[in-house]
Write a structure and sequence with these properties.
Blueprint: H1 22-132, E1 135-139, H2 149-160, H3 165-171, E2 172-178, H4 181-186, E3 191-196, H5 199-211, E4 215-216, E5 219-220, E6 222-225, H6 229-235, H7 239-247, E7 252-254, E8 260-264, E9 267-271, H8 274-288, H9 297-316, H10 332-339
Antiparallel strand pairs: 1-3, 1-6, 2-3, 4-5, 7-8, 8-9
Helix pairs in contact: 6-9
Length: 352
């Protein structure tokens, strides 16, 4: 059986209201696609930004955590070091406190030792000064080999006093020649130092020398008081004043340890320090209208003090290991200023 042929039917035409332009449809689709793509891109950008921000926050938090951890470790280390320093400071304070206590104790002991030393030096000076109260120095007696000094002194002193030679022999304790720079410089006989057993005998001989000038072998004998080297060094600091007192015939006498006693205008003044001596010197300048033809009194006194400081320190270090130590000899200037001229028979009064 034969199949009938199909007869093509004409295509139905769409109504005009549904007719679409192909070009317009494609442009719209493109716009829609572009909008969709833009939305997707913006969405992806937002998502990327969110992820980046989250990653940055996580990274920042991680770094901050590390930084905090490191800071904590550093702070802990610093605290530990500060604690160690504080402990060391405490130890140092304790040590310093201990050292200060030890230093204070040492200073206190040194102060006591200085006071004891000063007291001992004053006591030794006083003893030495008391010892010189029994001594006299005989000058200008010719030296001879094998001489008997005791007999020479007995002969001189018995003529001056009413004491018999036998009694005088008992009164004389020691006689000896002493070296001095004065004897070497002037090529004269060395002085004879005589120690008496009783002070009143020594004082009587010292008084009689002004009334009856002693002599031996036709030569006048100079009799001088004996003083310690320490007191002689101290006296040098008062020479600026004693020279003026002698020049104007103002009476004065030396004190035992230091200073002078001045009799001025029927009053007595005890000048036992250099400062008091300088004040009194200024008073004399005003009263007597003195002109300073030499250096200022303060500078002069200071110069005298400095010139004897070295010698004084050397003598302080020496120990007295003998019962009667040999006193330091007087030099020429000391003899002239303190006890009178050395080569003449004239003797100054005892108070000068």
């Amino acid at each position: 059986m034969q199949t009938p042929a199909l007869i093509p039917t004409p295509a139905r035409r769409l109504s005009t209201q549904y007719d679409v332009n192909p070009k317009e449809t494609t442009f719209k689709d493109l716009l829609q696609e572009m909008l969709k793509m833009q939305e997707k891109i913006e969405k992806k950008i937002e998502e990327s930004q969110e992820k980046t921000q989250q990653n940055m926050e996580r990274l920042f938090q991680k770094e901050m955590g590390k930084l905090r951890h490191e800071l904590k470790e550093d702070v802990a280390q610093i605290k530990k070091e500060v604690s160690n320093v504080q402990d060391e400071l405490k130890i140092l304070k304790k040590e310093n406190s201990s050292l200060k206590k030890v230093q204070d104790k040492t200073e206190a002991k040194l102060k006591k030792l200085e006071e004891a030393k000063e007291k001992l030096e004053k006591q030794q000076e006083l003893w030495a000064s008391k010892e010189t109260d029994y001594q006299l120095r005989f000058r200008n007696i010719e030296e001879k080999e094998g001489e008997n000094l005791r007999e020479i002194i007995m002969e001189i002193t018995t003529r001056m006093t009413n004491i018999t030679p036998e009694e005088m022999n008992k009164e004389i304790d020691m006689t000896q020649r002493i070296n001095s720079s004065y004897a070497k410089r002037n090529n004269v006989p060395r002085d004879i130092l005589v120690s008496f057993c009783r002070k009143n005998v020594r004082d009587e001989i010292n008084r009689m020398k002004a009334k009856d000038q002693p002599s031996y072998n036709g030569k006048k004998v100079i009799i001088l008081k004996e003083f310690t080297s320490t007191s002689m060094n101290k006296r040098k600091n008062y020479y600026f004043l004693t020279d003026v007192l002698k020049k104007h015939k103002i009476k004065f006498r030396w004190e035992r340890l230091e200073g002078i006693q001045v009799t001025y205008r029927e009053s007595k003044f005890w000048l036992t320090s250099e400062e008091k001596a300088r004040d009194f010197y200024r008073r004399l300048q005003k009263d007597l209208n003195l002109t300073s033809d030499t250096a200022d009194v303060t500078e002069l006194s200071k110069a005298n003090h400095d010139s004897t400081r070295t010698k004084h320190k050397d003598e302080e270090g020496k120990k007295r290991d003998k019962k009667r130590p040999r006193p330091e000899p007087l030099d020429e200037e000391e003899g002239k200023k303190d006890m009178g001229p050395s080569n003449t028979g004239k003797q100054p009064p005892d108070d000068k």
